[in-house]
Amino acid sequence: MSDPILIPRPEGLYCPQGDFFIDPSRPVARALITHGHADHARAGHGAVLATRQTLEIMAIRYGADFAGQRQAYEAPLRLGEVTVSFHPAGHVLGSAQIAVEAGGQRIVASGDYARVSNPSCAPFEPVPCDIFISEATFALPVFRHPDPAQEMEKLLASMRAAPERPHLIGAYALGKAQRVIMLAREAGYDAPIYIHGALQRLCDYHIEQGVPLGELRPATMDKAEAGGLREALVIAPPSAFASPWVQRFADPVIGFASGWMQIRARARQRGVELPLVISDHVDWEDLTRTVTEIDPAELWITHGREEALMRWAELEGRRARPLHLVGYEEEPE
């Protein structure tokens, strides 16, 4: 194989022929962004190319002046000597894989991706390529995520069993909160859902984009009102559970929606009574299935459990390398 058209640098993945970075961890002159989560989308770049929804999400999170210039991806385009195209990643609203092509070589940087059904975004699109760059967030054989509908039924069963206790569910503001709401709606829960103020703008944006979240009410009531709240589902970002906000609710059931809830020790450390294993990332089975399906000549592995995936690739006779990129911390997920 000829020299790759993407190379790892301290700022992130760099394309010399196009003079741009993909999901850089610090401000650069030109950045291509896969999705709006904070460890991939940062403010301060000279120019940003991303899907329209990702640009709008970044504006919501960072303000309208988050970059010097913004360009919404609409079709494959030339940047210098390379052709760039965006393809659905199935992770969160606006998420995309970025394919870079030149000299007969195609590299796909997948960002974060998922293979399970998610009505808030387009499903993952397998893209044939020479090099596939994959996350490894849950790249251990122990991570086999259950059906999200079953986890939602666990939540609704708990609400039926303890109707006198409000259920407070921790969920990341972009993607996971809306996913939990959608799963509740799909399961037939049509009562109002209360949301923490930190979720309001992103939930409003999902509704504007045609994602049917149903009736949402702000969870901004005072302590007296919150103390009398019963038979209620309340969604809040994980940070809210370490703030005085949570103390206004009387005897709540504390839940947390994350792929990490499969590790019971994490649930206990967080004081989570109702762990919900709901993830927006591929688990071990979907990750290895995706690599097998795409069948790249080489697999590059970014943040996560690199060792197990490297070993799997070796046993499968696949070329693989860890990138050890800096700045992709473990997401709250």
Written account of the structure:
The structure is a single chain. Helix 4 links the parallel strand 13 and strand 14. The strands form 3 sheets. Strands 7-8-9-10-11-18-19 form a 7-stranded mixed β-sheet, with helices on one face. Strands 1-2-3-4-5-6 form a 6-stranded mixed β-sheet. The chain has a 6-stranded parallel β-sheet with strand order 14-13-15-12-16-17, with helices on one face. It is of the alpha/beta class and 333 residues long. The protein has 8 helices and 19 strands. The protein has 2 domains: 7-142 and 281-322, 4-Layer Sandwich (Metallo-beta-lactamase, Chain A), CATH 3.60.15.10; 148-276, Rossmann fold (3-Layer(aba) Sandwich), CATH 3.40.50.
Short description:
With 333 residues, this protein is an alpha/beta fold.
Q: For the largest sheet, list the strands in their spatial order.
A: 7-8-9-10-11-18-19
Which bin fits the share of residues in helices?
Answer: 10-25%
Work out the radius of gyration. 20 Å
H-E order: EEEEEHEEEEEEHEHEHEHEEHEHEHE
